[in-house]
Amino acid sequence: MSNEIVMPKLHERMSEGSIVSWEKGSGDQVEPGEILAVLETDGRQIRLPSFVSGVLRQLLIQPGITVPVGEVIARLEPSRGENTGEERQNPVEPAGEPDRPLLPRKSGNGEPPRHFAVSVHIDMESVESLCRSFREDGIRITVNDFLLKASVIALLKFPQVNSSLSEQGALRQSRVNIGIALSLQHGAVTPVLKKCNGKSLHDLARESRSLMDRARKGTLAPEETTGGTFTVANLGMYGIDEYRSIVRPPEAAILAVGAVRNAPIVVEGRVVPGRLMTATLTADHQLLDGADAGLFMAELRRLLEHPAPVLANGKP
């Protein structure tokens, strides 16, 4: 089974791109982070890395040809044991469902049960490689930007995690509004990225930087700190490996991530050096159960370990 490599959306205004050169040929073995091709869009050349290990089987677009974002440009056969979770590396994100009520869960004595947490360890080597590649090409994209975009995709796939409690009961939200928890000298604040459903990685990166800059300056408007449907908290910059955060009512869950650290991982039965990050989802059991949380976290891990969909255009 082969993976389709598509022309990715490499910045927010990109609608098409061309192949300047193929750095790998048909039949070549490639590893995550190795450069497959040099692309050009809007006069800027950007290197396209591989997201998985495998053998490059078909080069479908010749150098000099311009194609739209999302068009298949090559096919790669993954190495044995490499699980990308999908055949195509540029899926269309599922559309959000209309708001609709859900039934809250109760404990045996009729009181709402307490919050619970689930954690996963995520190999961040591919994301870090992409961040380095972007940085070398003069594009500012961080691990946190990938985390935000992956969260949006996972929330759209599992919309029950994007639900909240209201006076009428539990409500599944159609829009994804992600809060970014910040700890500042003047106190904690959570600016909210609104209407994330169709936004690209670069849209989210640009807007989150603007929000965080205004938060640090104390110039956020009141409406920029309300309306969240899900929150991401990152203490990795403080060297924290793993922690649980507190769900912000009326949201269903909050994602807390620690630092990316050196750690051994197992690849095809071999122990090799890896770059691991621990992510913990704390959830309100009135809105989610363990299976909901587990499916969401498995999808988040897949997206960050095989980040091709995160680079895709956010608009279906």
Features:
single chain; 316 residues; alpha+beta; globular; 5 helices; OB fold (Dihydrolipoamide Acetyltransferase, E2P); Chloramphenicol Acetyltransferase; 8-stranded mixed sheet
Characterize this entry briefly.
This protein is of the alpha+beta class and 316 residues long. The protein has five helices and 19 strands. It has helices at 125-136, 143-157, 201-217, 290-305, 308-311; strands spanning 3-6, 16-22, 29-30, 35-41, 44-49, 54-59, 66-68, 72-78, 100-102, 116-123, 163-166, 169-172, 178-184, 187-189, 192-193, 230-234, 253-257, 261-267, 270-283.
Element string (H = helix, E = strand)? EEEEEEEEEEHHEEEEEHEEEEHH
**Percentage of helical residues?**
10-25%
> What would you give as the CATH superfamily of the largest domain?
Chloramphenicol acetyltransferase-like domain
> Tally of extended strands?
19
Alpha-carbon distance between the two ends = 25 Å
Radius of gyration: 20 Å
Helix/strand/pairing class, anyone? alpha+beta
Determine the number of helices (DSSP H or I, runs of at least 4 residues).
Answer: 5
* Approximate shape: globular
Flag low-confidence runs. 83-113
Total domain modules: 2
The main β sheet shows up as: 8 strands, mixed
CATH class of the largest domain: Alpha Beta
- CATH architecture assignment name of the largest domain: 2-Layer Sandwich
Which fold name fills CATH's third level, the topology of the largest domain? Chloramphenicol Acetyltransferase
Fraction of residues in β-strands: 25-35%
What is the residue-mean pLDDT, rounded to a whole number?
83
